[in-house]
Amino acid sequence: MKTLLIALNIAVLLVTPVAAFAQQSLISDPEIYEKKHFQEQCTKADFSEGFVIRQDINNDGLIDAVVNEGELTCDGEKGPQCNDDGCTYNFYLQVAEGGYFMIATAQVYGYDFVKRFGNMVLAMKMHPRFCDRPDADKTKEPCVVTARVRGTKFVTISKK
Fold this sequence. Notes:
Helix content is 20%, strand content 40%. The protein is an alpha+beta fold. The chain has one domain (23-157).
């Protein structure tokens, strides 16, 4: 068992430097990027007003973007990738040099952007199993995962 743990730690150390140097290319606008993707996937793609929300999600003063795929109608089907876990949300950060990059994708029912301890945080409503409550009724008591974006990472503050 001890040998297995050592081997796993070595494997992680070997992979981590490679991952650290891998860099995502910037996109000029997530809205254009995402709409183009779905226009290629669907015969007819319609996007409601809530498809892209622009707001500063990491408290750096730059306006970021959140894409809600539940606000897409693809070939007459609203939110085709939505399921019991919610809909896919893609979170993009804007950088000072210009452009955006995706920092996270989450399957959520929705989120609120609220101020906690002086910082804006995301309170994401998710399936109860994400809070270790697999048998809970998701319509009555969804899991709320509160996260702050620090640098380029989501940092979970609480789960309830």
